[in-house]
Amino acid sequence: MTPSERQRFDDLYQQHLNQLKLQGKRPKTIAAYSLAVRRITEYFDRCPDKLTIDDLRRYFSQLIGTVSWSTIKLDRCGLQFFYKHTLHKQWEWIGIIKPPKVTRLPNIISPEQVASVINHTREPRYRVLFLAIYTMGLRINEALNITIPDIDSHTMQVHIRHAKGGKDRLVPLPTRTLHALRRYWCTHRHPTLIFPSKGKCCDNVMNDMGPQKALKQVLKECGIYKRITPHSLRHCFATHLLEQGLDLRSLQILLGHSSLNTTARYTQMTQLKVNDARQALNLLADRLHLDWELTL
User: Fewer beta carbons under 10 A from the terminal one: N or C of the chain?
Assistant: First the structure.
């Protein structure tokens, strides 16, 4: 880019960031949408306000096969936001790129395997974090951001603040989890945080990269070869509660889902459903009268 183009891009990029904040986008969304603008600018080496539909088609064509569809969708949404709110232009996005709809089921491990993972986690802070995520069905950042005032030991509830979509919710607190949180807090006695980071910046919460790396190592030691992440423990929480007989509506509230359809997907992963299906399939097969079967 020429110096004048660089200056124009810098001005537009700053407007983009301002618009993202004005529209109330969350930090992760701001990071993803701003990266989308930087990435396409680097690809063409010119300010994106002059790009044509053909340029956009060429850009997304080279993305396919090199990055995940989730990344492509984020780039599409980020650029759409940029053109609409910063450049005040409209684009026919369906004609440019339309990611396929994919529905995947998360990996689930048994309660016994969850216990093994927690027991084999060496660092106490990660061990207690995994316990909190599993026993309360939390997202990892929800667990990391729990503060002392959020915990009510009288009502045995935890106030989860600023969760996905900016929603708060109250989650029941198991007694065993409360005791574990208390014992861990006594090792650092931070005035407000349960999971503070180590080092000088102790007023920040623990980074989520450490627990993710630790979990990978623990899974190898436990001989578990499924792709399990800290978020998988939340999926296990939901599936195991359904197996214990909890109704879908109650589970929806615990998880903080806006739609019951989102919660309903866990019914496909319960062992009870698998066993019911297995019995039905065996019954279907056993009812067949096959004359040739005994001759094989």
Answer: C
- Judged on CB neighbours under 10 Å (0-12, 13-18, 19+), 231 is middle
Same structural domain, 195 and 231:
yes
Q: Give the domain extent around 253.
A: 111-275
The tokens describing 19, both together, are: 């618009």
Of 95, 124, 150, the one marking the end of a domain is 95
Quick check: is 103 in a domain? no
Which amino acid, one-letter code, is at 11? D
For residues 146 and 60, give the distance between their C-alpha atoms in angstroms, rounded to a whole number.
40
3-state secondary structure of 89: coil
pLDDT tens string 280-293: 777 877 777 776 65
Query: Active-site positions?
Result: 139, 164, 231, 234, 257, 266
DSSP 8-state assignment for residue 94? G
Judge whether 177 and 143 are in contact, CB under 8 Å. Answer: no
Provide the number of structural domains found in the chain. 2
Number of residues that this document lists for the chain:
296
Burial class (CB in 10 A: 0-12, 13-18, 19+), 65: exposed
- pTM of the predicted protein model: 0.75
Q: Give the residue from 69, 95, 121 where a domain finishes.
A: 95
- H helices of 186-270, in order, are 209-222, 230-243, 248-255, 260-264
Distance CA 213, CA 50 (A): 42
195-217 pLDDT, tens digit per residue, is 998 865 578 889 999 999 999 99
Distance CA 6, CA 260 (A): 48
Q: Which residues contact 53 (CB under 8 A, 6 or more apart)?
A: 91, 92, 95, 96
Amino acid at 6: R
Are 88 and 122 members of one domain? no
